[in-house]
Design brief:
Layout (H helix, E strand, L loop, with lengths): L4 E4 L2 H12 L7 H23 L12 E6 L4 E6 L6 H8 L8 H13 L4 H4 L11 E9 L6 E6 L4 E7 L5 E8 L16 H12 L6 E12 L5 E14 L16 H11 L8 E7 L5 E7 L16 E5 L2 E7 L11 E6 L8 H5 L2 H24 L1 H21 L5 H4 L5 E3 L2 E5 L1 H7 L6 E6 L3 H5 L4 H7 L3 E4 L2 H10 L1 E2 L2 E5 L11 H13 L1 H10 L28 H9 L3
Parallel strand pairs: 2-8, 12-14, 17-18, 17-20
Antiparallel strand pairs: 1-6, 2-3, 3-7, 4-5, 4-7, 5-6, 8-9, 10-11, 11-14, 12-13, 15-16, 15-18, 19-20
Helix pairs in contact: 2-6, 9-10, 10-15
The protein binds adenosine-5'-diphosphate and magnesium ion.
Length: 573
């Protein structure tokens, strides 16, 4: 039975399609890399399944991706021998923005529609829809090894799609793009994607490292041969042969010295849903007891879902070039959950289970190693390019502070030198090390003050005496700052002290102290009187050396500071 059904896209999908079709986005050519990357993912999945389900495919099964341009029909087809999709999978994967139907996405989409900023598309893994940037009709024919029937999905991107049962003899997916017609006026040239040279160029540019052959029949003019097989001079003939367009060598297997920065960046953007270049790339190989290759990226921006529950940390895991899992979370500590990348190790068996992996000793060693490498890379960045580091810290610094706080200080030695704070002595945020280096000889503490903003804190009456002393004050404007510092307790033997709290120990000379004591005695009655007036509001009224031009200030006792008290009051019990 083959009936044709018409179904509607989700509202979000409709919006997205609209955005795709009407956008003035200039990088339309990326549709090809999106479809190739889907094809490659689908082959990965089939290959992985076939490791345990041995009768899924014949032993001589060919994993490949084919590109078939057809100038007569004005179509380009991308065909793979991957896992394909059942009817339900087509509806779930292609008809909806499955993982992205979240509120955050819709909000971002609205913003993007206003500003015509299409960069969010890559982040949400809506790659398939990029087909509509170049095609006015898309046909997808697919067969899963888990279903007897093949499915044809078709849409003109106008809000609905059709589904139909069809014949297809092989497993896999075929996507036919009916290209839009050229519009010279708008300088939109779609027929270019039917040209052999253009397709070759795009595959080289975006998909060279894809691990399966990307093939195309190419027509060549070659010298004609005579009966004995010798070339005849000046006589040529056209022959068609299947050519593999990509080199297939995974990028991470290549030598570091042979890889250009753009290649690393392209690879990142292709594989990790980001349209901006990464901030830093870490690529290294370990040999010996445990062998593995790591290709790790520090993104330059936090992804949109970074602070949502949906965000999952982890690196891709490969063993001997075979894809094992998308997010191996054991490989990265929480405070580096922003990392993207992959590990390829020959030390794991192909069908290792999640449970076994969790207790795997090698995996732990690799994870520790990765952490060390990342710390070293960040320290290098901090030293050589502070501005860039500041950018990094704006995006991901909170995770590092939480890392110190959440581990009850267990990670403090690893992370303390990655912290930077605003400070009264410099325009740029400073490290604790820099602070200590600038400390006055007689200065006992690292002073800080917590509050909403730097400008507000600079005006505090308490600042004056400290500034007079020439001491520096760190401004803690992030709520977590003070919690993290409490876990650190000290830095290079210097304890932290809030200028709002207890005795400032400004190292007054003895004369000053005596004078203060005398004055306290003289004014005993007055002080007691004020204290009585304010009973229940303050616990003690004292004379102080910490003020210069302001007559009075509030400070907290030795325990919890005002700011921490505020944060703790806000916390749900
Ligand atoms: P993503 O690749 O990030 O998941 P896409 O929009 O590119 O997002 O694809 C959506 C989903 O459609 C994929 O996750 C996959 O399940 C399915 N899909 C797309 N192309 C193929 C294909 N060639 N073979 C099998 N499934 C596919
Ligand atoms: Mg995709």
């Amino acid at each position: 039975m083959s009936t044709k059904e018409t179904l509607s896209f989700q509202t979000e999908t409709k919006r997205l399609l609209d955005l795709m079709i009407h956008s003035i986005y200039t990088h339309k050519e990326i549709f090809l890399r999106e479809l190739i990357s889907n094809a490659s993912d689908a082959i990965d999945k089939l290959k992985f399944k076939s490791l345990t389900e041995t009768d899924l495919i014949p032993s001589d099964y060919k994993f490949k991706i084919e590109i078939i341009p057809n100038k007569e029909n004005n179509t380009i087809t991308i065909k793979d021998s991957g896992i394909g999709m059942t009817r339900d999978e087509v509806i779930n994967n292609i008809g909806t923005i499955a993982k992205s139907g979240s509120k955050a996405f819709v909000e971002e989409l609205n913003k993007a529609t206003e500003t015509n900023d299409i960069d969010i598309i890559g982040q949400f893994g809506v790659g398939f829809y990029s087909a509509f940037m170049v095609a006015d009709k898309v046909t997808l024919i697919t067969k899963s090894p888990y279903s007897d029937i093949a499915i044809k999905w078709e849409s003109t991107g106008d809000g609905s799609f059709t589904l139909e049962e069809v014949e297809k003899d092989s497993i896999g997916t075929e996507i036919i793009l009916h290209l839009r017609t050229d519009n010279e006026e708008k300088e939109e040239k779609y027929s270019i994607y039917l040209e052999e040279w253009k397709i070759k160029e795009l595959v080289k540019k975006y998909s060279d490292y894809v691990r399966y052959p990307i093939q195309m029949d190419v027509t060549k003019e070659v010298p004609k041969k005579d009966a004995e097989g010798n070339p005849i001079e000046n006589e040529y003939e056209k022959i068609t042969e299947t050519e593999t367009l990509n080199s297939m060598l995974p990028l991470w297997r290549k030598n570091k010295t042979d890889i250009k920065e753009e290649e690393y960046n392209e690879f990142y953007k292709n594989n990790f849903h980001d349209w901006s270049d990464p901030l830093a790339t870490i690529h290294y190989k370990v040999e010996g007891n445990i062998e593995y290759t790591a290709l790790i990226y520090i993104p330059s921006k936090a992804p949109l879902d970074f602070y949502s529950k949906e965000y999952e940390k982890g690196l891709k895991l490969y063993t001997k070039n075979v894809f094992i899992m998308e997010k191996c979370k054991e490989l990265v500590p929480d405070h580096f959950r922003f990392l993207k990348g992959l590990i390829d190790s020959s030390d794991f068996s192909l069908n290792i289970s999640r449970e076994i992996l969790q207790q795997n000793r090698q995996l732990n060693v690799i994870a520790k190693n990765i952490e060390k490498k990342v710390v070293a890379e960040l320290k290098k960045l901090l030293k050589n390019n502070k501005d860039k580091y500041i950018e990094f810290f704006k995006e991901f610094g909170r995770d590092i502070k939480f890392g110190i706080y959440n581990s009850f200080g267990a990670n403090k030695d690893t992370l303390k030198d990655l912290l930077i704070f605003e400070s009264s002595n410099s325009d740029k945020p400073t490290t604790l090390k820099e602070y200590v280096e600038r400390m006055k000889e007689e200065q006992k503490h690292i002073y800080f003050v917590s509050g909403e903003s730097r400008s507000q804190l600079e005006k505090l009456p308490q600042m004056e005496a400290i500034k007079d002393k020439g001491y520096e004050v760190l401004f803690f404007t992030d709520k977590i700052d003070e919690f993290a510092i409490q876990m650190l307790m000290e830095y290079e033997g210097k304890s932290f002290k809030s200028i709002n709290q207890g005795d400032l120990e400004l190292d007054e000379n003895n004369d000053d102290k005596k004078l203060l004591e005398e004055k306290e005695k003289e004014n005993k009655e007055l002080l007691e009187k004020i204290q009585k007036e304010l009973e229940g509001k303050v616990s003690k009224v004292k004379l102080t050396n910490r003020l210069k031009s302001s007559p009075v200030c509030l400070v907290s006792g030795e325990g919890v500071s005002f700011e921490m008290e505020k944060v703790m009051n806000e916390m749900p019990n």
